[in-house]
From TrEMBL:
Homology family: Belongs to the binding-protein-dependent transport system permease family. FecCD subfamily.
Main localization (coarse): membrane
Protein's name in the database: Iron complex transport system permease protein
Superkingdom, natural source: Bacteria
Location of this chain's protein in the cell: Cell membrane
Keywords: Cell membrane, Membrane, Transmembrane, Transmembrane helix, Transport
GO molecular function, one term: transmembrane transporter activity
GO annotation, biological process: siderophore-iron import into cell
InterPro entries: ABC_BtuC-like, ABC_transptr_permease_BtuC
């Protein structure tokens, strides 16, 4: 009887555990939906939440309202959702396979590599131009796909080099982070040199690209980011138990039959793929991949059944919140989204560094 009662208590405790985590994910989903609706309602022409919902449900006959909602605001909101999801997923997986809480696209040099690629495209392929007038309002990208391709290649180069060194030299995850920091410095220095030898028009275009903007992606770009992120998520979620095993250490994971080396290589490649794709289309967006996984981990722990979807949902919600701030802090001006995410993420990054230093 005691054994049966113990098994029932264990089963009840496990059900309570999963129910609590599932409710948390539901809360994140509702938060992301609310932030999306709120973001759709904010703009130069005010639109109450009730009107937004009615228009989305097809209950409004106002043609101008539908045009504003679906053609002007919806692409920006969808971009925030998919980019936040991509960066948060990438950060979550990078932190798992590298076993380092500081790992993300911005700390591994993916963002800096993408910025270098964009600078090369703007200067040497003449992909950016500026008309007369204010530098920010008059900058256009004459060949945006060249920028996207080279920014993507620049972001991928960083991780390819890191993975190559890890495969050939067998470096530890900590060393991989340091290699990422070194590559970040190298790409940042190269970008600075390109700016130094460029004219004012080119420099303005480079700086404007690095600010980050959710208004650059169209429907095709949004679909591409979403598809790559979704397919990568399927792979990540399929390996959720392997990631859980790796939380106990590499040797423990290997003893449980986890193909650790292959898992690290494929996971890092896919994580870099989705983050580089997102950054290539919208510019440098810092710290979302660092913030979201840590905030979710505080609630659900290191159970990747909940950590992966939770990170994706919170990443989308945080990106929507950052976009909302960028459009409301100094109306009608729109602040750079990259600056907003940096202000949100830098304090947490500093906290993690200090916390890690205390443990040592």
């Amino acid at each position: 009887m005691k054994t049966v009662r113990r098994e029932e208590n264990t089963r009840t405790g496990y059900q309570r555990y999963t129910r609590r985590k599932a409710l948390f994910l539901l809360g994140l989903l509702l938060t992301a939906i609310f932030m999306a609706l709120l973001s759709l309602s904010v703009g130069s022409s005010g639109m109450p939440l009730k009107d937004v919902v009615n228009t989305l449900l097809g209950r409004s006959g106002d043609a101008s309202m539908r045009t504003i909602l679906f053609q002007v605001r919806m692409p920006r909101v969808l971009t925030a959702v998919v980019v936040g999801m991509a960066l948060a997923l990438a950060g979550c997986v990078m932190q798992s396979v590298l076993r380092n809480p500081l790992a993300s696209a911005s700390t591994l040099g993916v963002s800096q590599g993408a910025s270098f690629g964009a600078a090369v495209a703007i200067v040497y392929f003449h992909a950016g131009s500026k008309a007369s007038g204010n530098a920010l309002s008059s900058i256009t990208f004459t060949n945006p796909y060249i920028i996207v391709i080279l920014a993507f290649l620049g972001g991928m180069t960083t991780t390819v080099l890191i993975l190559f060194l890890s495969k050939v030299r067998g470096v530890s995850p900590t060393v991989m982070i340091l290699v990422g920091v070194a590559l970040s410095a190298m790409f940042s220095g190269a970008t600075t040199l390109i700016q130094y030898f460029s004219d004012d028009e080119m420099v303005a275009s480079i700086v404007y690209w690095t600010f980050g903007s959710l208004g650059r992606a169209g429907s095709e770009e949004i679909a591409l980011i979403f598809i790559t992120s979704l397919l990568s998520f399927f792979y990540f979620f399929y390996n959720r138990w392997n990631y859980n095993a790796m939380e106990s250490g590499v040797q423990t994971a290997k003893s449980l039959g986890v193909p650790v080396d292959r898992l690290i290589l494929v996971s890092m490649f896919l994580a870099t793929l989705i983050s580089a794709t997102a950054i290539a289309f919208v510019g440098t967006i810092s710290f979302i991949g660092l913030i979201a996984p840590h905030m979710v981990r505080k609630v659900v722990g290191s159970d990747y059944r909940f950590l992966l979807p939770g990170s994706a949902l919170l990443g989308s919600a945080l990106m929507l919140f950052a976009d909302l701030l960028s459009r409301t802090v100094r109306t009608p001006a729109v602040l750079p989204i990259g600056a907003i995410t940096s202000f949100l993420g830098a304090p947490l990054f500093l906290y993690l560094i200090l916390k890690k230093g205390k443990r040592r």
